[in-house]
């Protein structure tokens, strides 16, 4: 396999989070390295977080393993048991099904980055630790609901359009 040229890989940004929940990842972008290399069994992304940005809402996954390694700058890992400072070379792993909500936050004034590797499964269920939300991902897309499966309300997501 030839060396990947990072300069030739398009940077992506955005989120599927509904309403105001999307704001937590403002300043997050990534390079889909696994896709660029033709990988299909697991995903590999180089994620950039601008000052104040978070990697995601705090979550845990039921079907997919996840691994992260900081490559640039300084990030704070926030999990159920507290906070851990993460610097280049520091790693963390979250096995599928372990209920330990996590995310990375950039609290510095400089850009930070981390490599994230995760299983690719045809479906996934993700629970969010700090809000009453889950997402079921399948061939039809991402379906956001309360953790009991009932619909999210406009008040929960801050979407005045319902």
Provide structural commentary.
Helix content is 5%, strand content 41%. It is mostly beta strands and 162 residues long. The radius of gyration is 16 Å and the shape is globular. The chain has a 6-stranded antiparallel β-sheet. A hairpin with a 2-residue loop joins strand 6 and strand 7. The mean pLDDT is 95. It is built from 2 helices and 13 strands.
Runs in which pLDDT lies below 50 for 5 or more consecutive residues are none
Q: Roughly what percent helix?
A: under 10%
Instruction: Identify the overall geometry.
Output: globular
Strand tally, please? 13
Number of helices: 2
Kindly name the structural category. Answer: mainly beta
Overall radius of gyration? 16 Å
Average pLDDT works out at 95
Spatial arrangement of strands, main beta sheet = 1-2-3-10-5-8
Would you kindly provide a brief summary of this structure?
By secondary structure, this protein is mainly beta. The protein is built from two helices and 13 strands; from the N terminus they run ββαβββββββββββα.
Keyphrases for this structure?
162 residues; mainly beta; 6-stranded antiparallel beta sheet; 4-stranded antiparallel beta sheet; 2 helices; 41% strand; globular
